[in-house]
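RECORD TYPE: protein structure
NAME: S-adenosyl-L-methionine-dependent methyltransferase
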Amino acid sequence: MLSVEETKFSTLIDKLTATLDSLRKSYNNAESAGPTAVRAKQQSLSSLQALQRGVAELTTLIAPKDAITLMTGGFIETKALVSAVELGVAEALGEAELSTAELAIVVGADQGKLRQVMSLLANRCIFHQRGDAFSNNAVSALLREDDPMSMKSLVGHWGTDTYRAALSLPEGLLIENALKSPWELQVGESFYKWVHEPVNAASSTKVNNAMQSFNGSIQCDLVTGFDWSSLGDTATLVDVGGGTGAIDLALLKQWPKLHVELQDLPDVIEQAKAEWSKSCPDLCSRASFVVQDFFQPQLCIHKHYFIKQCLHNWGDDDCLRILGNLRKSISCDGRLYAAEFVMTPDASAIKHIIDVNMLALVNSLQRTEKAFVDLFQKAGFRVITVHQSTGAISLIEAVPS
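PREDICTED:
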């Protein structure tokens, strides 16, 4: 008779095998086109997340001490990655393979120390190692400044700012610090105040670039994963706190009858105007740029509001102020669309990391569907559906209640 541990092991192996088979099938189908490809991509991501959880569970079953050691030592991996980014290793390698000695000369690092860090990263499948030589792979290429999907700024932001906040995470969990973020405990002021101070302009740029990098991965899912033509031929979508409007550009290109109104703070709007005029002057006729603080009342009544990944930056009270202003200025037949990560019982590790990231920096969180429903209800909205895109982002659709 099998022991409890043997039964768990056997069950887990069977589950992993089935998940691998499912991943192989869905990955192959994702190469096709149309609805089949969309469903296949969703299934591929779901299978991958299940596989990651299964491998983690297998590690805890076979080598529980390794599981603790790997998680505790995660900070070493973070700083190793930050080191590679700050040294410009990915750019130095380019399309070539360089020996450690050659690479060390180019980036100005100690050869022996660089080899240790690069070997660790290669072990984690970041960079390719062949003997004493290294080259870029599909993952490390994302650390290059010139890569269209570059994550260099995100690594810099998380690996410095969020890392700094995380140092006070244990203290930040105490009941007496409930109203303060770990960042505030570490730095002495809120992250939003700190990042907008002139002396921290470089960090502000890094944060903005990091968010653009992160949003780039979900932009396609939002643009193509929802039928925006359902808003009507003459619809104007008001993007609240929309930054420089990267997703609005993509929406206008994909949906030729749609118009947008981009709202944000004065300096952001000026930047948006300059970028749009330079990169896509032909689309400016279908866009308007409005200075608007979402904590202040809207100037006009609108039918379609869109707010993307803003609510997770704020606690419930602040979110109610934001949503309350939209509720007062939405037409009775209007719609509010909020793009957010929605936490589920089987949420991926990435979602959980982002969740605690928000806790560390701004004392906020990634909410569950129920939490969103309750929040919207308090603000005078009724959630009618939550659209799941092909990726991790969801689109919450609500109407005035």
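COMMENT: DSSP finds 17 helices and ten strands in the chain.
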